Amino acid sequence: MNGTEHTLWVVAIIVGFVVVLAVAALLTVLIVLVKNIDRRVVTVRDTLKAAAANTADTALIPQVAAGVEAVLAEGLQHHLFLGRVLGKVKS
Amino acid sequence: MTVLVILTVIDIVLLIAGLAVYLFWVGTLLTRIAGNLEECAEIVGTIVSHAKLIGPGVGHINETGGVVAGALPLLYGMAEEIVADVAASAAGAAASGGAAASGGPGADGQPAPAEPAAPGPARPASGTRRSRLLQTVGYTPASRPPG
To answer: Is B64 exposed, middle or buried (0-12, 13-18, 19+ CB in 10 A)?
Structure first.
């Protein structure tokens, strides 16, 4: 191996180490970003859990609607009763 | 020559090992993120199923409540009219009964006993009822004291 080949080999090894360091740095940045995404996804999941707990009672809305419907039916009965009584009183 | 070979091997091993470690790490994190996102998707589906009940239910309640609110003044208007008619007829009966009682004696010469006064109409202890629709929306007319 002559001197030129030796020099080129040494340069190649140095460039290789530099490439290894650059890859490590870039992958570290990637890891940091992915960890950030992970934390925010956990935050979104917790928020969605709270929202689901808040909306869980919407199953009561149809029951409330049925109750209001019953109030209306009872009011109609009162209306009929008062109409009958009023007719008798006036007669 | 031997040193160069060893350094070359170390360089290649470092590159491969570093890539392997970092990619395994990233893979683990991405797997966890995928699990969390899948859970998020399920929760969003649950919320959507909950929210589907809100629109029709609230519309139903609003419609029925509007009918009830519109009918209540008619109801208590009829009730007040009944009370007024009964009170007027009771007052008329009392007046005619008093005139008959003070008229002449009975068959045995004694004055006929006065008929008991007709009981007045049952009035609510809370007084005359009135519409509370204005109070419901937070409006108090100037001619009406609050409360």
So the answer is: buried
